[in-house]
Amino acid sequence: MPLDQHKTILNCTVNGREHIRAVPDNLLLVDYLREHLGLTGTKIGCDGGECGCCTVLVDGIARHACLTLAAVCEDKAVETIESLDTRGRLAPIQRGFHEKLGAQCGFCTPGMVMAAEGLLRTNPDPSEDEIRAGLAANICRCTGYVKIIEAVQAAAKELRHE
To answer: What predicted TM-score, i.e. pTM, was given to this entire model?
Structure first.
C-alpha cells in the first residue's frame, strides 16, 4: 500500500456482528465485504453500478456495494446475502427464489434477493409494478424476470401469513 494512502477507522455492523478496522478511504464496500471480511456472496458484476449483482442493505436500504465507499458505512448496519438464513433455514425471499425457480445461473441472485428483501421490508404487499420498480436496478441476463417476480410475490405472501 502506498505510504500516502489515507485510512479511516471504520466501525460498522455487518450481518449482526460489529467490525472495527482501518480501511483505505477509497475502499469500496464490495471489496471490504469480500476481501476484508470474506463475505463472497456479494458479487462483482459490472463494477459500475449498472447490474445490481453487488446489492446489499445498508440500514435496511438496498445499495450497490460497488458504488458505495466502505467508510460511508460508519455506524451503519450492513446486511449481505449471508445474513438471511437463520440457523440453516432459508429466509422467505430465498425460499421464494428456490421454489419459484427465480435463479438461473445464480450470479445475479444474491443482489436480486437483497433488493427484493429491502423492497419487502418497506412494502410487504407490493404489486407486480412495484416489484418491477423495486428490482429495476438489478439485471438478470438469464431469465425473462417472470420467475423472479413470482418469487417475490411468493415471499410476500409467506411473510403476510407469518
So the answer is: 0.93
